[in-house]
Design goal:
With about 260 residues, the chain is mainly beta. The protein has a single domain, classed as YVTN repeat-like/Quinoprotein amine dehydrogenase (Methylamine Dehydrogenase, Chain H, 7 Propeller), CATH 2.130.10. The chain is about 10% helix and about 45% strand. It is built from 1 helix and 20 strands. Strands 14-15-16-17-1-20-19-18 form an 8-stranded mixed beta sheet, with no helix packed on it. A hairpin with a 2-residue loop joins β6 and β7. The longest helix has 30 residues. This is Glutaminyl-peptide cyclotransferase. GO terms for molecular function: glutaminyl-peptide cyclotransferase activity. Keywords: Signal, Transferase.
Length: about 260
């Protein structure tokens, strides 16, 4: 082999190694990307009045309809609100003295969990009447529907996956930050484009979770929304509107904020 031929072979090998290294890096990036973490900031677009007597537990849009559930034993309600004014269009009390928690709409039905009463309530969305009650394990905090299954939280670090037909549990996953720290206090939930947004009780943080891995993919500090609200009135309520904005509120807050999440 000539010197020139040897140099040609070495150059070809070097190029091949570089290309393979680049391909491996791209593959690693592709795997890491879904779990990459982003810090988000909130941009307030509008303010909507909110009933200060509402101990908000769940907030969700179903098309143009805005639903809210409120808590406390003997005071819990299922409500439909006017999204422009915050006025209560209709409401109904929960059966008995149930302590109501989060809700999610599934077709013409609404599923709502209760705090420590051990049941989920299926409502007829048109008539606001209970259709049935089914038993649930552990505490009920938040729920959302991703189009295939219902995701629910129980105040721990776990998201539970349940069937929308009968609320039977099919599995669960622990939620962790990129450094491996578990995230407890998962509260009111909102399913958006394959991700789950959650209030982290009792903080002002909202996190976005990949339900397939349990990884927190983004977080936002919403403390600026308090604006003088008492400290005991924690953030609790995330509802995504059809235009991609969100309504955010808290327990007994005087305001619902229409916001946009942007990269920090």
């Amino acid at each position: 082999m000539s010197v020139m031929s040897g140099l040609h072979v070495l150059t070809s090998l070097s190029v091949t190694v570089v290309l393979l290294a680049a391909a491996c890096a791209d593959a690693r990036d592709a795997v890491a990307a879904p779990n990459a973490h982003s810090e988000l900031r909130i941009t307030v677009l509008d303010e909507v009045p909110h009933d200060t007597s509402a101990f908000t537990q769940g907030l969700e849009f179903d098309g143009a309809a805005l639903y809210e559930t409120t808590g406390l034993a003997g005071q819990s309600q299922l409500r439909q609100l006017d999204p422009a004014t915050g006025a209560v269009r209709r409401s109904t009390p929960l059966p008995g003295r149930y302590f109501g928690e989060g809700l999610t709409a599934v077709g013409d039905r609404i599923w709502q969990v209760t705090y420590r009463d051990g049941v989920a309530i299926e409502w007829d969305a048109k008539t606001f009447t209970p259709a049935r009650e089914v038993p649930i394990e552990g505490e009920g905090w938040g729920v959302c529907y991703d189009g295939g299954q219902i995701v629910r939280s129980d105040g721990t670090d776990r998201l539970r996956f349940v069937a929308p037909a009968d609320f039977t549990e099919a599995g669960s996953i622990a939620v962790t930050r990129p450094d491996g720290e578990v995230v407890t206090g998962l509260n009111e939930l909102e399913c958006v484009d394959g991700q789950v947004w959650a209030n982290v009780w009792p903080t002002d943080e909202i996190v976005r979770i990949d339900p397939g891995t349990g990884a927190v993919t983004a977080s936002a500090d919403c403390g600026a929304l308090r604006r003088g609200e008492p400290d005991v009135n924690v953030l609790n309520g995330i509802a995504r509107a059809g235009d991609g904005t969100y309504l955010i509120t808290g327990k007994n807050w005087s305001t619902m904020y229409r916001v946009r999440f942007d990269a920090a």
